[in-house]
Input
Amino acid sequence: MQNLTWVTAGLTDRGLKRKDNQDNFFISQDRALLVVADGMGGASGGERASKLAVETIERLWEEDKPDINNAKSVEAWIQNAVAAANTSVRTAALESRDSPNMGTTLVMAVLSENGHAHIGHVGDSRATYISTVASSVEGLTSDHSVVMEMFRRGQLTKEQCRVSPFRSIITRCLGHDENVSADYCLKVMNFGDWLVLASDGLSEVVQEEEIKETVEKFECPEEACATLLEMVLSRNAPDNVTILSAKLVSKKDVPGKATVSMPQVTAEK
Output
């Protein structure tokens, strides 16, 4: 694993139905931290909430990175980062007259060059793992949502969850409660494997198997992200969408920095 590294890319788009983009994302220059936040609470409130969450985590990363080769250190850092981001958003909400209900989802990944992907999430933004060798896909997060709770109780099928009018109601987010913790998981990845982080603007219209089939066609994350966005836009893009991808590759195949941020704005239709 010592000769491996990550190549990463990210983009965001407001979609075809929304006037504003309430999503935000961050990819660190060392390609070891990826963050997606999907805000809520009105146009200005949602955008501010997601931006506050991302900026708080970015600042913590710059000030006090964890030992990324120590799983306990990374898990503790993720929980601390989530708590700090929650405090930032909640404080802003309590002080706001216009957006007292602002909040945001969050999904983040800390990546080490030994192939370990540490995932933390709150809400319904997702992390998806694609194994190139096995040609398989695995969701690494379980939505904190009303429909997912009903699915776990056997009250809804997966297909019913996809079309339920309650599918956008989440049960956990940053900014609404004093104390919030992230669900955490560790995924050991291999050469050629992919990780995709995204807001629900992707999962609403593109299924996991389609994500797998798309990224497998490409060598670089930029093309994978751009093609996934094209799929969303071709299906009317009802929500803001943010897509980050990371691939574990050989160091000799990476000539320089591989972090790419491509914010995009779609014209009104």
Observations:
- Residues 257-269 have pLDDT under 50 and may be disordered.
- Residues 161 and 220 are 32 Å apart (CA to CA).
